[in-house]
Amino acid sequence: MQTSYSSSRILLPVRPWFIGFSLLLALLLNLLPTSVWPGVPDWLALLVVFWSVREPRRVGMGLAFLFGLAMDVADASLLGQHALAYVLAAYGGSSLSRRILWFPLGQQALQVFPLLLLVQVVQFSVRMLVGADSPGMGYFIGPCFGTLLWPLLTFVLLLPQHQPVDRDANRPL
Amino acid sequence: MDHQPPPFFKRGPAPVALLSFYVALSVALLVVDARLQTLEVLRQALSMFTHPVQQLAHLPAQFLDNAGNYFVSVARLQDENAQLKRARLENVTTLLRTQQLEAENERLRKLLGVKERQQAGGQLAQILYSARDPYSRRIVVDKGQQDKVVAGQPVIDDAGIVGQVTRVFPFVAEITLITDKEQAVPVQIVRTGLRSVVFGLGNGQLELRFLPANADVQNGDLLVTSGLDGIFLPGFPVAKVVHIERDTSYSFARIFCAPLAGVENFSEVMILDPRPAIALPEQLAKEAAGREAKPAVRSGLAKKKRLKRD
User: Fold this and answer.
1) ipTM of the predicted structure?
2) Fewest C-beta in 10 Å: which of A13, B20, B51, B132?
3) Gyration radius (Cα) of chain A, Å
């Protein structure tokens, strides 16, 4: 029987390669041509926040910085623009992780929203300081969809850590 | 002496220290990239990692595109072929005459002792995708350092100027479109010969700036490159004037233009060869060589002046 993600069952330790794989997959999703559609969230920002909340000792600002640089090069934006935003989001995620994980998933999503918004706001203000033209308000819709995806994302990304359930009728606990 | 208890769990440097280190590093990168533009080598090195991922990401779209092409009906292709043949026949008369006129022009220019016009040559490039950055207007084409593309080369399509190569990677190159906010093209109005510079607005339009309110510009005027910049060859169509605002409270007219080339389309473009620098006359070249003897002092002075002005 598959238990629901809101249960407090003990999870297996995360495998490091799975974190790396999910981050690479997020980079790939970000580079898909669909990313120009309005409302598509910044997958990499979402994953960086997710892992820094879930595993603050494994995924930190260093990894966020590296993936931010990769995103900057692929995006043809200013070098350091994504890196700065992701580093700040990773710091926020890891320092708030104890508090965020205390809440049920819906309320977790509400607390993650400011972090995702921060990523967009930091990039927006950096580019405005340098003097680029404004991308319009549609730029800030992405974090809203990212927030809505949080419960689903938590369920999918924690699936590999779920233990197989073996029921034992004679066990007292 | 103050004794600290031994750390039970090693967690590396404090999070705030790490944060300030990474923030300082990214801000330094931002400033250097925005003001000095000296990080191209780092960008090219990182692109060796991101380029394969980007190619992988564009595979599904390419696959759908190819599948679509495969199922195009034969009748439509035959129709298109016939149309192209007709267009070629229609154009052949003007083309033949142009070749003859160019030869004649060259001969006359030689007679007059005027420098010959440079022949336009270049290489065809396929547009791969438009850059994801929502703040600028750039496209990426499939020619790079391998094909000897250098930054600064003008890019055209069948209707006019598209933009300029601004960044070159090993296998791809980035082209800034003329509608980008930071792109400017020196132009000339065909009807009057008036020279000016056209700037991108970032919303798909262009603006002709710094022309007096009573300048002789009309709706529908054609703008072509003036060639004064030494980068764009003269005579390529750039834009058409679509809207003029003459407000007496400002000393300049606001003149909006629409690009002629299919700037936002996905098709093939031509990267024109870079223009060779025009050699200085002998006397001027000598003077310039003499001046270079003490460039260090000069640049120092210039720097001081710039500081004062700021």
Assistant:
1) 0.84
2) A13
3) 17
Nearest CA in chain B to A81: B30
Helices then strands, each counted (H, E), chain B: 5, 12
- Lookup: tokens for B106: 């060259």
Residue B175: which of B210, B139, B125 has the closest Cα?
B139
Q: B interface mutation test: which of A58, A77, A125 has the most B CBs within 10 A?
A: A77
Chain B residues within 8 A of A42 when measuring between CB atoms:
none
Q: What is the pLDDT of residue B266?
A: 66
- Asked whether residue A84 is assigned to any structural domain, the reply reads yes
State the residue range of the domain holding A127: 16-155
Q: Which residues of B49-60 are buried (b: 16+ CB within 10 A; e: fewer)?
A: ebbebbeebbee
Residue B8: φ, ψ to 5° = -80, -45
| A2 assigned to some structural domain | no
Question: Considering chain B, what percentage of its residues have pLDDT values greater than 90?
Answer: 10
Angle CA(A138)–CA(B131)–CA(B229) in degrees, nearest 5?
115
From first to last of its 173 residues, chain A has per-residue pLDDT tens of 334 445 556 788 888 899 999 999 999 988 888 777 778 888 999 999 999 998 888 888 899 999 999 998 888 888 889 999 999 999 999 999 888 888 888 888 999 999 999 999 999 999 888 877 777 777 888 889 999 999 999 889 888 888 777 777 777 65
What pTM does this model have? 0.78
Closest CA to A86 of A61, A121, A109: A61
- Using a CB–CB cut-off of 8 Å, the residues of A that contact B are 24, 27-33, 35-36, 57, 60-62, 64-65, 68-70, 73-81, 83-84, 87-88, 91, 94-95, 126-127, 130-135, 139
* Cβ count near A111 (within 10 Å): 19
- CB within 8 Å: B136 and A76: yes
Residue A161 lies in a domain: no
Test B167 with A76 for CB contact under 8 angstroms: yes
Domain annotation for chain B: domains and CATH numbers:
15-70 (no CATH), 118-272 (2.40.10.350)
The pLDDT tens digits of the residues spanning B72-121 come to 778 888 898 999 999 988 888 888 888 888 888 888 887 776 666 666 77
Q: Which residues of B touch A130 (CB under 8 A)?
A: 30, 34
Would you tell me how many other CB atoms lie within 10 Å of the CB of residue B167?
Answer: 20
Q: Do A78 and B27 touch (CB under 8 A)?
A: no
Find chain A residues with C-beta within 8 A of B53's C-beta: 24, 27-28, 31, 70, 74
Residue A150 lies in a domain: yes
